[in-house]
Amino acid sequence: MSGTLFNIQRFCTDDGPGIRTTVFFKGCNLRCAWCHNPESQSSDVQLMFFADKCIGCGKCSKKCPNALESCQLCGNCALYCPEDAREICGREYSADEVMDEILKDRAYYEASGGGVTFSGGECILQIDFLCELLKLCKENGIHTAVDTAGYVEYSRFERILPYTDLFLYDLKCADADLHKKYVGVDNTLIIENLGRLFDAKKEIWIRIPVIPTVNDTEQEMLALRQIISSRGRPSRIELLPYHAMGEHKYAALGREKMSFPVPADEKMQILKNIFS
After folding, report:
1. What CATH number has the domain bearing residue 57?
2. Contacts of range 231-236, beta carbons closer than 8 Å, 24 or more positions apart
């Protein structure tokens, strides 16, 4: 069993309780205008070129079998670049390879009440690989969390329910038209799946990105609060302020990005008070 990942990050403290290893799956069926991991969207392996790091030494061209005229994703340009200006994003992993990385930090999970979080992209799109990893984690007594945007058929959730301790569930906008404009799809299925997970008595943390000019109004947050409270009671609701730290990745992929302002601390507190 294998799947495509773009990162395995150890010692994470923001993706669930305790110290965690976060496994990032490649591929997403949403196109959030504010996405800070655009390399997660395509399920394909990609080459990223960070022009601001390039010193023009020419080693990449010399090592490339096609002299940079075309790319076969061999990775030579990234391997020999002295400034890490080129990067191959994504590779296929076996379940055993991933578990080898996860098990390195078992002692930290046990000491901190942590575990493993499967994220993305949308990890549930690679459902067979995700299910296999979740089963292996439970066999090893490791706490599991699945970070999802919820835009998948519920039958996929049903497959992983027995092996998932916590769902980190993203909600973007309450208004369906606003959701479609900035995320690319309607939010009906996402809201329905949230209700089904509450009905299944699963622990859920709600995570809401706060994007100025999109959903940073009290009206939107009150509507999101109503959606949540009418379906169940999450263990936690987190409001995540927009940040621009991923913008350079769009240029590295040859893509343009919409820009948004960073929300002020005072505004964030007002919106948080709505949920408290």
Report:
1. 3.30.70.20
2. 231/191, 231/194, 231/195, 231/198, 232/194, 232/195, 232/197, 232/198, 232/199, 232/204, 233/198, 234/169, 234/204, 234/205, 234/206, 235/166, 235/203, 235/204, 235/205, 236/205, 236/206
